[in-house]
Write a structure and sequence with these properties.
Number of strands: 13
Structural class: alpha/beta
Largest sheet: 6 strands, parallel
Order of helices and strands: HHEEHEHEHEHEHEEEEEEE
Bound molecules: NADP nicotinamide-adenine-dinucleotide phosphate
Length: 332
């Protein structure tokens, strides 16, 4: 009993230390981005407002070996070409967070396939990125439709010859209301787009990603950890994505494919309009990345690295470099 108390205290101290490091780094990062004019911090809010809360919410969850690092938004020259010859497929990428991720991956040298439901949005976003000299192809893909996913895969293979990274950003919240008041149709829509589609798309891409030891990033939400009353089923779907991330990370580790999850706070986009001015869930502009990947390669665990880099223009990404754990350590 005494031993387990001591272990619990030690884990708590380690988690606190980690959060201090993360908080300090995030503050420096946010200050840097503010200086570059990429974000504005509100006077009454620091970008790290929510981090201690996150730490409290997850004590015992952090693994002592997990090393965290924060990457600054690119200065261009030093980061140019780091993803040269790599191919990224980003869903829901014609605006908001997905667009920023697509742009950044392309700025880092990747060929990027962007997509969303509406042709005019795809055309506009692709044209904008191409004008910036980036290597981008666009295709219509409603992630909830099997035929659209097939077309997306075919386009990536045809234009780019393979896929290294999949970022699943498309997400919906068609109803702002209570969970029990939600119709079956709306349940199906939210779970279909937010939870099922990333797994189904990945299963279609897997044969090609396997050859290239790729990486997958799912986009959850802070609502997964701090559900908000009005968001109902959306909260449920984003929590399910965390479970999906952990499960896929385990299943794909032997194939050397990393799976991570991005957990944004509230970011000013069309999607989150409802949060602004209404005392939103969290006004922090820091995006804590709270998931880790586990790699299992030829019988050995080793560390992995999240593919995402900073999300220029919409906020800050915390890059997480995880260290592998023993399989039983996954029960977090
Ligand atoms: P956004 O600015 O509204 O952009 C959404 C993008 O997804 C658009 O390109 C949209 O284009 C596309 N899209 C919507 N439904 C789609 C579907 N069924 N299939 C394919 N593409 C679809 O939204 P955002 O704020 O960037 O949000 C992106 C993701 O971040 C979502 O998963 C959301 O849950 C998550 N998130 C956002 C926030 C936030 O505060 N903004 C916070 C936490 C998590 P079309 O209309 O052309 O389809």
């Amino acid at each position: 009993m005494k031993g387990s108390d001591e272990r619990a205290r030690r884990r708590w101290r380690e988690a606190e230390n980690l959060m201090h490091i993360l908080e300090a780094k995030s503050t420096r990062l946010a200050d840097g981005l503010e200086a570059e004019g990429l974000i504005q911090q509100e006077a009454s809010q620091t970008p790290t407002t929510m981090l201690p809360a996150v730490a409290r919410g997850h004590r015992g969850w952090f693994h002592p070996c997990a090393r965290l690092s924060v990457r600054m938004s690119s200065t261009g020259i030093d980061r140019k070409g780091i993803l040269a010859e790599r191919v990224a497929v980003v869903t829901g990428s014609t605006s908001g967070i997905g667009f920023a991720i697509a742009r950044r991956l392309a700025q880092d040298g990747a060929h990027v396939v962007i997509s969303s439901r509406k042709q005019q949005n795809v055309d506009r976003a692709a044209a904008q990125l191409q004008r910036e000299g980036l290597s981008v192809a666009g295709i219509v893909c409603h992630v909830g439709k099997a035929e659209d996913r097939e077309r997306l895969v075919a386009t990536a293979l045809e234009h780019c010859g393979g896929v290294d990274f999949l970022v699943c950003c498309a997400g919906v919240n068609p109803l702002v209301g209570s969970t029990l008041g939600t119709s079956e149709q709306i349940w199906d829509k939210i779970l279909n787009v937010n939870v099922k589609s990333p797994a189904l798309l990945l299963s279609q891409l897997l044969p090609y990603m396997e050859k290239r030891k790729g990486a997958v990033t799912l986009v959850s939400s802070i609502a997964a950890y701090f559900p908000r009353m009005e968001l109902g089923v959306y909260n449920v779907s984003k929590t399910a994505l965390l479970a999906l991330t952990r499960t896929l990370a385990l299943e794909l580790a032997p194939k050397d494919i990393r799976v991570n999850c991005l957990v944004p706070g509230v970011i000013k986009t069309d999607f989150s309009k409802v949060d602004w001015g209404a005392g939103g869930l969290c006004r922090s502009r820091v995006l804590p990345v709270l998931s880790r990947c586990q790699l299992h390669h030829r019988g050995e665990h080793r560390s992995g690295r999240l593919l995402l880099s900073a999300l220029r223009g919409v906020g800050v990404a915390v890059q997480l470099r995880s260290q592998a754990q023993e399989p039983e350590g996954v029960s977090r």
